[in-house]
Design goal:
The structure holds two protein chains of two kinds. Chain A is an alpha/beta fold. Chain A is built from one helix and eleven strands, in the order H-E-E-E-E-E-E-E-E-E-E-E. The chains are: A alpha/beta, B alpha+beta. The interface between A and B is large, with 55 and 60 residues. Chain A: This is Cupredoxin domain-containing protein.
Chain lengths: 125, 757
């Protein structure tokens, strides 16, 4: 094994470790919902290559209103799905789209883009 | 005193679905001074009745804005049709842009390819300066990256910032690596030659990959708009205006949003019914195919319900509005289909798990491929081989095919179902319907019509049916009893001469009496005649017993103190039942019947429609228990009911099918609602579910196999044995085709037609 091979092997393994850590194990951005005067829990979410924040904490039993602002034209994020709530919504580019739901049982509910590549979760407490 | 109200119509902007409409509606209704707010999603209009002293157009607008939507100021004559055309135009524009990006990439790739080939031709190599050629190729490739492929890089970067990786990540890393390597070989070729390497460039690979992936996207977008076509078609069905009769009697055309509960609307032949209501006067045949899938027009008379979006064929009629906006049948169908399209099928679970970790995993495999090739390949070719295989792995992997496999099929099939009057609650219901092996039918209202009809009309010796029928009809015409209505329907069908009856009197629980042509007429049960002291002759009684043995209800007829005839009334089997049951059995399902009738009647109906197994004398509260009993035998049960007192059984079954539009309770409990009162709908639902799940399985199989075979081949696993390597350009073609194939396979469901017997 020559020097170049050793360097390539070590760099490669380091990259693999980084990819695994970065995508699977690093901390996520979490946000808790803010309750408005009317008792609706509101959260603003920006959609650009992902959802930020991508973990949303809400309380059980109170209506939730999520405002998705899609800050890109990329077709990956053109739909958002909440399969546990039977919601499929088109997100027009550079517009805010509201998603309303009523979390009536606690748990962790995923929301994804149309193809399941972009992910976020709604944590109901 | 009720304060005078004003009506304002607002154009709402930014609503993307039916539930947005209800949200705007709620927000408006909460505004002080607002008495009524109706928001129509299809036309994007809100109609608000408000008290001018408490609310103003400005405060209404504020309420809409607070709800997160906008109010557009536009000339009032812009029609809904024009606006939907505007949305379509925007979509078309995005599509045009994508096509342009593809056009640029394809055009340049077509120039770059042959130029790159020059290198393979030694005679040309001698004449052309390699360095210059590479710079030329670089210049040609830059627009492909910067214009056509820019979105891949920005999307990959945005995703990376969110710790998310998607398909664009793979394309960006793959083409980016090929491009950067080529860039280095172009700018500092000495670095390569000093190490005994050919400074090879991969501009052709970079450009071709981008062109092919964009081609895939163009085809995908075109196909995708077709998957949601059903919803658009359904929404387009709504009438835009209604001809309302004002209190003064004049008829005025008003926009549909301004129609209110209790308004009387006129419908002329050839016109669309504006909204849901009940006919007040006139009669006609209506084409309800758009809602129920029933192709034959339905006859309607006063007090019959009519539904918005159906087509009036023959006569004119007036109806009183009972439902508007989101409460109408059409709006509910749209909502149901929308909900179903947003639901997730259990069959998708594995694909979901895989796609969650797919892209990072592929990146890891690609890196390992690079390392292994670099370490194991001969010194002089190790870098290009490592690079080419690294790129090929990234490009061939297609998470899209996995992601599209299930939802596209569900979208096409729920839309298709609605077209045939089969409303599927969610993807899980569709999957359950596929697994069913036993169909339990609640006899009344499903196999039978659920309403009595005259089956026998018997005249006593010396009497004449043709003479008796008009007399009987004259009396029964005055009664409101369901059995009497059945007799009148029968008489009308026989075109009996109309006679007049006087002195009509209903005898509770026994029958009715009246005078026709000066003769006293009694129609009712044997007690009615017995109490009047009328004797029933043995010959007639024998015939009555025969009818009773067939579980028919018997009405006795007495004229002028003498028993003269019998009428047998029974719930009759629908014309289509036997054929539909035969079809279900041909599909390999066991059909079981359940009824409250006695065993003899049950046996007779079962035999008539070809059912071998049945439960008789089932009390309403035991229906769910029978479903459980079948489930205990290890069967997967579909329960079909008309929704009257069988909601618990519908809920207990693995899949419940509510028939005939169903009651609200039944629709809640049922996974599938059949708009048409006909067992044929059950056949359609089961066949559709089978085709859909078959399509999904094909899609998932293809997507998994494609990736599990494609990735190792691209990594060069076959190289040691066969010497095969996959060119990244071929990988790009395969990847572009894979997601399009899955979509095309799902779109095949659009050709679904229920089999008719």
């Amino acid at each position: 094994m020559d020097t170049a091979e050793i360097i390539v092997t070590l760099t490669g393994l380091a990259l693999v470790a980084f990819v695994v850590w970065y995508f699977f194990f690093s901390a996520r951005q979490t946000a808790s919902a803010v309750s408005s005067s009317s008792g609706v829990q509101e959260v603003d979410i920006t959609v650009k290559g992902g959802y930020s924040p991508d973990v949303i904490e809400v309380e059980r039993g109170k209506p939730v209103q999520l405002s998705f602002y899609r800050d890109e034209e990329n077709s990956c994020s053109e739909e958002v799905l909440f399969p546990d709530f039977s919601i499929r919504r088109d997100l027009p580019a550079f517009k805010t789209t509201l998603v309303e739901l009523l979390p009536d049982k606690p748990g962790r509910f995923e929301f994804t883009c149309g193809m399941g590549m972009l992910r976020g979760s709604l944590v109901v407490k | 005193m009720e304060p005078t109200t004003k009506t304002e119509t607002l154009d709402i902007e930014g609503m993307t679905c039916a539930s947005c409409a209800s949200f705007v509606e709620k927000s408006l209704s909460r505004t002080p001074g607002v008495q009524r707010a109706v928001v129509n999603f299809a036309t994007e209009k809100a109609t608000v009745d408000y008290v001018p002293s408490q609310a103003t157009p400005a405060s209404l607008k504020e309420a809409v804005v607070n709800a997160g939507y906008g109010v557009t100021e536009r000339p009032p004559d812009t029609s809904a049709a024009e606006r939907s055309a505007e949305i379509d135009r925007q979509k078309a524009l995005a599509y045009q842009k994508l096509k342009r990006r593809f056009g640029v990439a394809a055009g340049l790739a077509l120039v770059i390819m042959p130029l790159s080939m020059l290198m393979l031709w030694p005679a040309a190599m001698e004449r052309v300066n390699m360095q210059w050629l590479n710079y030329g190729l670089l210049l040609l490739t830059l627009p492909v990256l910067g214009y056509s492929g820019r979105e891949f890089y920005s999307s990959a970067w945005n995703g990376f910032k969110h710790r998310a990786a998607n398909m664009d990540t793979l394309i960006a890393v793959g083409t980016g690596a090929a491009f950067l390597y080529s860039l280095a070989a172009t700018v500092v070729p000495g670095f390569f030659t000093r190490r005994g390497l050919m400074p090879e460039v991969y501009y052709d690979t970079t450009a071709t990959i981008i062109a092919l992936i964009l081609l895939g996207k163009v085809l995908e977008l075109r196909a995708k708009t077709q998957t949601s076509a059903a919803i658009r078609t359904l929404m387009g069905l709504q009438a835009k205006t209604a001809r309302v009769v004002r209190p003064g009697g004049q008829e005025v055309d008003v926009p549909i949003e301004q129609v209110q509960l209790g308004d009387v609307v006129v419908v002329r032949p050839g016109e669309k019914v504006a909204t849901d209501g009940i006919i007040e006067e006139g009669h006609s045949a209506l084409d309800e195919a758009m809602l129920t899938g029933e192709s034959l027009p339905v006859e309607k008379k006063p007090s019959d319900p009519v539904f918005g979006a159906t087509l009036n064929k023959t006569g004119s009629f007036r109806f009183r509005v009972t439902k508007v906006g989101a409460d109408t049948m059409l709006a509910q169908i749209v909502k149901l289909v929308e909900d179903a399209q947003g639901s997730r099928a259990p069959i998708q679970r594995l694909a979901d798990k895989v796609s969650a970790i797919f892209v990072p995993t592929v990146v890891v495999i690609a890196i390992l491929t690079f390392v292994l090739w670099f370490d194991l390949a001969p010194l002089e070719t190790r870098l290009p081989l490592a690079l080419v295989n690294f790129v090929a792995v990234l490009i061939i992997a297609c998470p899209c095919a996995l992601g599209l496999a299930t939802p596209t099929a569900i979208m096409v099939s729920t839309g298709k179902g609605a077209e045939h009057g089969v409303l599927i609650r969610n993807a899980e219901s569709l999957e359950k319907a596929y697994q069913v092996n036993t169909v339990l039918l609640d006899k009344t209202g499903t196999i039978t019509r659920g309403e009595p009809a005259v089956t026998d009309f018997v005249a006593a010796d010396g009497q004449n049916v043709g003479h008796l029928l008009p007399i009987v009809a004259a009396v029964e015409r005055q009664s409101e009893h369901p059995l009497a209505e059945a007799v009148v329907r029968y008489a009308d069908a026989q075109q009996a001469t109309p006679l007049a009856a006087t002195g009509f009197r209903a005898v509770e629980g026994k029958g009715a009496s009246a005078a026709v042509d000066g003769q006293a007429v009694l129609i009712g049960n044997s007690r009615l005649l017995a109490e009047a002291g009328i004797n029933i002759l043995p010959a007639l009684q024998q015939q009555a017993d025969g009818l009773l043995a067939q579980a028919k209800t018997v009405l006795y007829v007495a004229v002028a103190g003498q028993a003269v005839g019998l009428i047998g009334v029974a719930d009759t089997v629908r014309d289509t039942s036997a054929a539909a049951i035969k079809r279900l059995q041909a599909l390999g399902l066991e059909v079981v019947m359940m009824t409250g009738d006695n065993p003899q009647t049950a046996a007779q109906v079962a035999q008539q429609v070809g059912i071998k197994r049945y439960f008789a004398e089932v009390l309403p509260q035991d229906k769910a228990g029978k479903v459980k009993a079948l489930q205990a035998e290890g069967r997967i049960v579909a329960m079909v009911g008309d929704g009257i007192n069988d909601a618990p059984a519908l809920a207990q079954a693995d899949i419940g099918l509510a028939m005939g539009g169903g009651t609200d309770v039944a629709m809640e409990a049922a996974g599938i609602t059949l708009m048409r009162s006909d067992l044929q709908g059950v056949v359609t639902a089961i066949e559709l579910s089978r085709q859909t799940i078959r399509t999904i399985k094909q899609n998932l199989f293809f997507a998994f196999i494609y990736n599990t075979l494609g990735i190792p081949v691209a990594a060069g696993l076959l190289y040691p044995v066969f010497g095969w390597l996959l060119s990244p350009m071929l990988a790009a073609a395969a990847m572009a085709l894979s997601s399009v194939s899955v979509l095309t396979n799902s779109l095949r469901l659009r050709g679904f037609t229920p089999l008719k017997n």
